[in-house]
């Protein structure tokens, strides 16, 4: 009997080719997968550390969103249907102006805010693939929170040219109102 030498199998082992309609018929709510450009990517279940970070952020943001009645905060597994993908961001915020795009199954179009908690197997996907995809789909703001080490979170907002621009983080700066859609 052979033993595995790596923590996770190669990424190719997670991928299946199918149409979006086939994906909807194939996947149920217990499958941790996303559909991207005709390919289904099946993921390993998230770690406790990852889930704890998502829970903390969802509670914090959810309290703020609810208190100020800004819209709706949702978290995975909930689908955000974009032109060439069906992603399940860790956390997504939909402003009141865009609530009409929500159904019981998915958000049609880009969220106002997407938060991804970076995992060992999602570094390239979150920093490169989703960054490009979310930017081109019209996500207003994209946050990357990396709990693997002492890594500063990254906050990107959509500038006037439609490109993500890094939001500067300054020591002692409590004014998030300048960049964040959930701040009003």
Whole-number total of structural domains: 1
Question: Can you tell me the CATH superfamily?
Answer: tt1808, chain A
Question: Which class do the helix and strand fractions yield?
Answer: alpha+beta
Instruction: Give me the side-by-side strand order of the main sheet.
Output: 1-3-2-6-5-8
Can you put this structure into words, describing what you see?
This protein has 184 residues and is α+β, with helices and mostly antiparallel strands. The protein has one domain (46-183): tt1808, chain A (Alpha-Beta Complex), CATH 3.90.1570.10. The chain has 3 helices and 12 strands. The protein has helices spanning 20-26, 48-67, 123-137, and strands at residues 15-17, 33-36, 39-42, 71-75, 79-82, 85-87, 91-95, 106-108, 113-118, 141-146, 154-158, 164-166. Strands 1-3-2-6-5-8 form a 6-stranded mixed beta sheet, with no helix packed on it. A 6-stranded mixed beta sheet has the order 4-7-9-10-11-12, sandwiched between helices.
Write the layout of secondary structure elements.
Blueprint (H helix, E strand, L loop, with lengths): L14 E3 L2 H7 L6 E4 L2 E4 L5 H20 L3 E5 L3 E4 L2 E3 L3 E5 L10 E3 L4 E6 L4 H15 L3 E6 L7 E5 L5 E3 L18
Parallel strand pairs: 5-8, 9-10
Antiparallel strand pairs: 1-3, 2-3, 2-6, 4-7, 5-6, 7-9, 10-11, 11-12
Task: Please describe the structure with a list of short key phrases separated by commas or semicolons.
alpha+beta; single chain; globular; 6-stranded mixed beta sheet; tt1808, chain A
